[in-house]
């Protein structure tokens, strides 16, 4: 059924546009996030001191059970874009 929605979780690799390689994983407290990390998360506010406030508001709007004030541990993934896998 071509019109039926299918989860991208089960998309075959040949249909993917981008591939990433995870280079590091670490746990840290949410409030340890840097201005550069916030920018990488998609918050591009100038001046940069407003960037932290914008990120706090975004976090709280998404994470009702773990607001910014609870300073939860989060997993931080570092990755880079790579070419498609060999044999594709």
Helix-and-strand structural type: alpha+beta
Globally, the shape reads extended
For the largest beta-sheet, the strand count, sense and barrel status come to: 2 strands, antiparallel
- Mean pLDDT, all residues: 88
Number of β-strand runs:
2
Lateral arrangement of strands in the main beta sheet: 1-2
Count of helical segments?
A: 2
From the N-terminal CA to the C-terminal CA, the straight-line distance is: 26 Å
SSE pattern, N- to C-terminal: EHHE
Any overview of this molecule?
With 88 residues, the chain is an alpha+beta fold. 23% of the residues lie in helices and 24% in strands. The protein has two helices and two strands, in the order E-H-H-E. It has helices at 35-40, 49-62; strands at 19-29, 73-82. The chain has a two-stranded antiparallel sheet. The longest helix has 14 residues, at 49-62. The mean pLDDT is 88.
Can I get a quick summary?
This protein has about 90 residues and is α+β, with helices and mostly antiparallel strands.
List keywords for this structure.
88 residues; alpha+beta; two-stranded antiparallel sheet; 24% strand; extended
Q: What does the secondary structure layout of this molecule look like, with pairings?
A:
Elements: E1 19-29, H1 35-40, H2 49-62, E2 73-82
Antiparallel strand pairs: 1-2
């Amino acid at each position: 059924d071509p019109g039926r929605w299918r989860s991208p979780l089960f998309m075959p690799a040949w249909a993917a546009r981008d591939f990433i390689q995870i280079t590091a994983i670490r746990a840290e407290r949410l409030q340890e996030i840097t201005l550069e990390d916030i920018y990488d998360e998609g918050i591009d506010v100038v001046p940069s001191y407003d960037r932290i406030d914008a990120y706090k508001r975004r976090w709280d709007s998404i994470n009702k059970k773990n607001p910014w004030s609870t300073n939860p541990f989060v997993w931080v993934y570092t990755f880079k874009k790579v070419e498609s896998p060999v044999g594709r």
